[in-house]
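Thread: quick sanity check before group meeting

JM: Hey all, I'm pulling together slides for Thursday and realized we never actually wrote out the predicted structure for the chain we discussed last week. Dropping the sequence here so it's in one place. If anyone has concerns about the input, flag it before I start.
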Amino acid sequence: MTDDVIRVFLVDDQELVRAGFTMLVDSQADMRVVGQAGDGGEAVEKIQVTACDVVLMDVRMPRLDGVEATRLLNSLPEAPKVIVLTTFDLDEYAFAAIKAGAAGFLLKNTPPADLLNAIRQVYSGDAVVSPSTTKRLLEHFAGALPDAATERPDLKDLTAREREVLIEVARGLSNTEIAKLFTLSEATVKTHIGRILAKTGLRDRVALVVLGYETGLVKPQK
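JM (edit): ok, ran it. Output follows.
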């Protein structure tokens, strides 16, 4: 296996589902299934001794669900990126999984080509769902977010421009839209986002959307 092959780990309590995902992933030249598990507990145990890059994680499973498994995996020294799979786009499990550190979520009926593209996106460091989709999820579950704005210490390190960019990311704007809004190049916007991630210690754009809501920079629409 070459270094540029994406190592995928599958977690689902249905063996038939795992078999289907295995056939799909292994049919690609740039990715390979390196392990699988039938529940979150087994997944956490195996992934600690199995090097992998991306985890496809069902959220509703016995013994340990995908949300708690994602939280535990995210605490590992070299945590893999987690894509949670859910039946409904406005799913409280998906919301909880994103707050637990998932890189995003996909519907279980996502077309195969889109699933494969999502694995590649997450591996390269991009968000697997659009910020606007995450924003819609957060708006739906706004009651689970803090009522009062709680300024996190790491936000104090942001420049005025970085704070402005963070707010627009949280509002669901793309890099292209942010660049147009502030009359910047897309490369400059990417640089700002990279610095925001570094200063906040967050892993991806989806986490920035959550941060924007949790700190009160963006208010849920009533």
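AS: nice. The radius of gyration is 17 Å. The chain has a mean pLDDT of 84.
JM: adding both to the slides.
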